[in-house]
Specification:
The chain has about 80 residues and is of the alpha+beta class. The protein has 2 helices and 4 strands, in the order E-H-E-H-E-E. The protein has helices at about 10-25, 40-55; strands spanning about 1-5, 35, 60, 70-75. A 4-stranded mixed β-sheet has the order 1-2-4-3, with helices on one face. Helix 1 crosses helix 2 (about 40-55). It is globular.
Length: about 80
């Protein structure tokens, strides 16, 4: 199942907290993928990656066709 987390209109602090809370809940499901809608803020993307995704070891990528999202998967698609 593909979940979406839309961060438009949130401060960076609120966004990081929301992503962490939502990802932990969603990751308890059996099959999942998450699209985090960040807009094109490189700073917000960097904070989410360094403060949530990397420490919690979530696999993620930013698709070259849409630089305003981060895709988070349960498996490393590139290994």
């Amino acid at each position: 199942m593909i979940h979406k987390i839309d961060l438009h209109g949130m401060s960076h602090r609120e966004a990081v907290s929301k992503v962490e809370d939502e990802l932990v809940k969603i990751s308890l499901s059996k099959f999942w993928e998450v699209e985090i809608i960040t807009g094109k803020s490189k700073h917000m993307q960097h904070r989410i990656i360094t403060e949530v995704l990397d420490p919690l070891k979530f696999f993620h990528y930013i698709p070259h066709t849409n630089l305003g999202v981060i895709i988070v998967t349960q498996d490393d698609l590139f290994s």
